[in-house]
Amino acid sequence: MDWRILGATFGTIFIAELGDKTQIACIMMAAQSKSPWTVFLGSALALVLVSLIGVLVAQALTQVLPLGLIKKGAGLGFMILGLLVFLDVL
Description:
mainly alpha
């Protein structure tokens, strides 16, 4: 196991998820349901599954596309999402 990659991945995802819509949704669901551990388990499982899908898609993409193109595509995707958020479409 490459501990450096593990640490970088953990830090990146942890910082990216702080204060985002998912965390706010978890706060609201836990407050409304009065069952915080159930909300935690559901949200943790969802994040694990979404992360697994992302890793598997990335692994498949790297088999057919160069890494530089994947990075540019990801950057473009973030820019589009940012623009949609900025324009209040999302």
